Amino acid sequence: MLPTNRGRPQQRPPPRSWSFSEMVDFSDPKRRPRHLSKLVMAALLTAMCVLMLTQPPCHRRPAPSVFSIHQPGVTHVLVTGGAGYIGSHAALRLLKDSFRVTIVDNLSRGNIGAIKVLQNLFPEPGRLQFIQADLGDPKAVNRIFAENAFDAVMHFAAVAYVGESTLEPLRYYHNITANTLVVLEAMATHNVKTLIYSSTCATYGEPEKMPITEETPQFPINPYGKAKKMAEDIILDFSKSKKADMAVMILRYFNVIGSDPEGRLGEAPRPELREHGRISGACFDAALGIIPGLKVRLTIAVCCAILLSERSIFWLLFF
């Protein structure tokens, strides 16, 4: 006979809850150390993973770069304002002469197109790097010097319109004089001994005698010229100190105009700044018919010898 209780639901035993102490029997002295060591190891690995994931990127050690190493036979030059008109041409010549170049520019007046041209011309690793930064930020400047092994500095970065300086004098003193002081302090901290400073003929003011020579007194008459003259004085005072032991060259330009002979670089003045009297802006306006014509009274060619080291001299010709 078959069982008569087939249709009755079978009673299942109630589910049993397991406690952690029952799953891991710590009462067994042989098993206790093994389980404890596994728990401690898991906790340590978890803590390490959390720490690595929450660590800011700036605190992670970057891979070594050739720009951070002093390499025999290679001169590494920092070009501030290298996206600007004169700075980009100087960077081009440096790269053509096999220098290693780092350009720092905040692009407030510089042209990113000039950077792209240089990057396309010199794509080889270790030749050129661009850092967008403001020289008015001492921490950023110091970090740039700490992460790169510079042999020399060419300081071009500056606002550079006489008319604008009379409207915004404080901006010019900050941008030119104060920022130059930041660069000098970083050079002193990181033992960079060679500086080429881009100044201006505006430091001469209105001289009584022409032509202007190195002996012509400097009496600037506008905030732009005064800010540059102050920066010159700071540089010369510091270079003469025993602690500095610096090689310094100051360049004063007279109406720089023109472009790379092969047409790769040139000046791209912002339309809103043409009213401040740049010669190139007047040329563009005459060519476009905005003004009826342009009279040129004098053409000046300034040929500047730039000393980067005892063995390295190159020439920049500006028309």
General description of the model:
It comes from Panicum virgatum. This is NAD-dependent epimerase/dehydratase domain-containing protein. Residues 1-22 are annotated as: Disordered. Residues 77-260 form the NAD-dependent epimerase/dehydratase domain. InterPro entries: Epimerase_deHydtase (IPR001509), NAD(P)-bd_dom_sf (IPR036291). There is one protein chain. Helix 5 (138-147) packs parallel to helix 7 and helix 7 packs parallel to helix 8. The chain has helices at 20-23, 32-54, 85-96, 112-121, 138-147, 162-167, 169-189, 223-240, 279-287; strands spanning 76-80, 100-105, 128-132, 152-155, 194-200, 247-253, 302-307, 313-318. It has one domain (66-318): NAD(P)-binding Rossmann-like Domain (Rossmann fold, 3-Layer(aba) Sandwich), CATH 3.40.50. It has a six-stranded parallel beta sheet with strand order 3-2-1-4-5-6, with helices on both faces. It has 319 residues and is of the alpha/beta class. The radius of gyration is 33 Å and the shape is elongated. It has nine helices and eight strands.
The CATH level-2 architecture is identified as 3-Layer(aba) Sandwich
Strand order of the biggest β-sheet: 3-2-1-4-5-6
N- and C-termini, Cα separation: 120 Å
CATH domain class name: Alpha Beta
Count of helices?
9
| Total beta strands | 8
Q: Structural class, from helix and strand content? A: alpha/beta
Rg, nearest Å: 33 Å
CATH homologous superfamily title = NAD(P)-binding Rossmann-like Domain
Please summarize the sheet with the most strands: 6 strands, parallel
Q: Beta-sheet strand percentage?
A: 5-15%
Shape descriptor reads elongated
What is the H-and-E element order? HHEHEHEHEHHEHEHEE
Provide the number of structural domains: 1
Look at the structure and give the mean pLDDT.
Answer: 80
CATH topology, anyone? Answer: Rossmann fold
Show unreliable segments: 19-24, 298-319
How helix-rich are the residues, as a percent range? 25-40%
